[in-house]
């Protein structure tokens, strides 16, 4: 059973790293929205391509366009924190019980 425990622990660590990197990407995208970045810059295009599908889904589910503030990045960050607290911790604890 220790093999499955180690596998779950590794999966939890990979998910944790992925969520942390994506959270920093969302933060960078939110900061870029405060200025007028060059839309032809490859970094800006990358940030928009990687975050816009998630933001679009949230904007469509919660149409709060009249307040003038885009709350999609905040919702994504809260969701990432929830996933890191619930999913990653649950996988770690389950892996420890299997070891």
What would you say this structure looks like, in words?
It is a single chain. Helix content is 79%, strand content 0%. It starts with a helix and ends with a helix. The protein has one domain (2-98). With 99 residues, it is mainly α. The protein has three helices and no strands. The model has no long low-confidence stretch (mean pLDDT 91).
Outline:
With 99 residues, the chain is mainly alpha-helical. Helices cover 79% and strands 0% of the residues. The chain has one domain (2-98).
Indicate the topology.
Blueprint: H1 2-32, H2 42-61, H3 72-98
Helix pairs in contact: 1-2, 1-3, 2-3
The secondary-structure element order is HHH
Characterize the overall form: elongated
Strand content of the residues, in percent? under 5%
- Helix count from the secondary structure assignment: 3
Number of domains: 1
Query: Roughly what is the average pLDDT, rounded to an integer?
Result: 91
Radius of gyration: 17 Å
What's the main sheet like?
Answer: none
Report how far the terminal alpha carbons are from each other.
7 Å
Helicity level: over 70%
**Structural class category:** mainly alpha
Q: Give the uncertain stretches in residue-range form.
A: none
Q: Give the number of DSSP strands.
A: 0
């Amino acid at each position: 059973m220790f093999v499955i425990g180690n596998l779950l622990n590794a999966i939890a660590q990979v998910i944790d790293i992925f969520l942390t990197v994506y959270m920093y990407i969302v933060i960078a995208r939110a900061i870029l929205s405060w200025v007028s970045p060059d839309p032809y810059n490859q970094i800006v295009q990358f940030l928009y391509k990687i975050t816009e599908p998630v933001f679009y889904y949230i904007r469509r589910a919660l149409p709060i366009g009249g307040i003038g503030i885009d709350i999609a990045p905040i919702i994504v960050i809260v969701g990432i924190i929830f996933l890191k607290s619930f999913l990653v911790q649950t996988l770690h604890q389950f892996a420890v019980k299997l070891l």
